[in-house]
Design a protein that fits this description.
Length: about 140
């Protein structure tokens, strides 16, 4: 069914359900997962400087849960790191995949209005089917 699965990961506890969902989908279909971590610089009023070493360390920490789960399930995973705007980058990369799997942090009210929702944006703008998992 889904051969190319894009899994958006952020390292949060709530994101773990999305990791499990994507890996199960890959196992069932014989597909392959690409775990994507976006160092979200978004739109900042004050410039923020990032070192590649810091971003790499953060990404490795985020990917550690994915690696452990994938090994246990015997699912092949590629890892990708992008620096940019999480929602837009995930939606743009979706064109190369059959499905995008992402989690939701469950934000609501003012916080969601101010910061927006990555999963909402991806669901509306993805070029692939999108599965949003509520952790």
């Amino acid at each position: 069914m889904f051969q190319k699965i894009l899994l958006a990961v952020d390292g949060s506890i709530k994101n773990r359900a999305a990791v499990t969902k994507a890996l199960n989908m890959a196992k069932e279909s014989g597909g392959k997962v690409t775990a994507l971590f976006v160092e979200n610089i978004g739109y900042k009023l004050v410039p923020v400087y990032y070192s590649i070493a810091q971003i790499d360390e953060t990404a490795q920490n985020v990917f550690s849960f994915v690696r452990a789960e994938a090994e246990a399930m015997g699912v092949e995973v590629d890892y990708k790191v992008v620096i940019g705007h999480a929602a837009k980058d995930i939606a743009n990369l979706s064109r190369d995949y059959d499905v995008v799997v992402c989690g939701t942090r469950g934000q609501s009210g003012v916080k969601k209005m101010v910061y927006g929702s990555v999963s909402d944006y991806v669901a509306k703008n993805s070029n692939a089917k999108t599965v949003v998992v509520n952790g």
